[in-house]
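Retro notes
What went well: the complex prediction finally ran end to end.
Inputs used:
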Amino acid sequence: MKYMLLIYENPGTREAFFSDEKLMAEMTAYVDDLRESGEYVDGQGLADPSTARVVRIQNGVPAVTDGPFMEAKEYFGGYMIVDCDGIERATEIARRFPPSPVGGAMEIRPLMDDGGSED
Amino acid sequence: MAAERIEGLLRQLAPEVLGVLLRRHRYFDECEDAVQEALLAATLQWPAEGVPEHPRGWLITVASRRLTDAWRAEHARRDREDADLAAVPSSQQHAPAPDEAVPSGDDTLTLLFLCCHPSLSPSSQLALTLRAVGGLTTAEIARAFLVPDATMAQRISRAKATIKAAGGGFSMPPEHERQARLKVVLHVLYVIFNEGYTATSGPSLQRRDLATEAIRLARLVHRLLPSDGEVAGLLALMLLTESRHAARTGADGSLLPLAEQDRALWRDDLIREGTELIAATLPRAALGPYQLQAAIAAVHAEAPSSEETDWPQVLALYELLARVAPNPMVTLNRAVALAMVHGPRAGLDLLATLDEDERVARHHRLASVRAHLLELAGDTVVARENFKLAARQTTSAPEQRHLERRAARLSVRDGT
């Protein structure tokens, strides 16, 4: 089963990580472990929300606006996809993510697959 | 010889060649790598130069040479070449005679037991079985399981390391363990089959090969253990299930339940083979869950339509299955059969017993079966709620589409 771990950050997250060598080393070791166990599929970090654009349907028509409307307390900062034996294991993987000193959250969502049973 | 036939031959020889190497050298990891290299060499050479007279001997020779080369390189690195070479038995320094006769069947079986070693995680068992016994490359397995090559390579190398750490040589598990170990092997083959069978169209086409591969491997095990009822049962179940494959999706790729399938698309050859196999097995073997599931599939296969299905027979078989191997999925299927024989309310009463069962209480199959039976009972409002619930719970895209459609169909009919 594949799961996406959605990583929610806040404005202090990156500074907290990048200024702490120990935390960065833990982060590297964490990803290496997942690669080594053959569970790591993919992962990406996103650039700051201030660089974003939004396309929103207004009265049936897509309208484009530049990124954030207000400073969000918590926003989507990146993701990892793991392929593991079930939601329990995926949860364990999320729990082992090096804890940020400024808080944050991870959401664990199963990926839809294209297999299906007809009965 | 066409490239496809060469590939078929190579895949068939792969476990035999690995078996021969393992009986000589015991180092699973290194031997497996050497065999993969030999297979690759053959894939490159044979189409151009022709298949050698003794293809198996050729592969054994090439793989042994790779193994010896790898060892020499290793020894050289450690700068202990002289001392160690003297210690390598002469049988390992020279390639074996190409026509060396060996009993390969037992080797293949031993190899299967090794790849489905209980200390491996389920996903590692699948991957290793496909590589070492199936002769698939890491890239092919990665594509079939929709993961990057690096992920699959890592999974396989970790699996090999685990086997190494578990110790034990290349030998059959002791007699008293064998039945339990065989159960794991059959389960691995069943999962491989399902991964391929349930794949729908589009990017999953390569996944389809998994079903073919699982059937090939099940045939192989059946040939090696012809008197085992569960092996025969599993093979029959795969054949009978696979027979429906072309009918299980509509023109737009949506899933079609058994009752709505065009039975003219079912494959007669597979039905005949599966039915004959299970008919010959049931009277003489100890009864088991695969045989019962195959028997149920055979009853469906011989029915001209859902209405004309021998539902009492299906129900009797599910009741037997519930006794032999009780689990909530069996109860779910039994509820459907019960509904077909004694009416939807009887089926719904049985389903109610599953609401407290943690293993299925939040599984989409419980909600979807309930929805189906409620629809049969004429309770469209609650049926619709249950289809919606099931659609939210499934992680399968085609199933979600099917369930949302059935919910929509009910709201149109209901005028809500």
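What we learned: Residues 311-416 of chain B form a domain with the Serine Threonine Protein Phosphatase 5, Tetratricopeptide repeat fold (CATH 1.25.40).
What to try next: split runs per interface for comparison.
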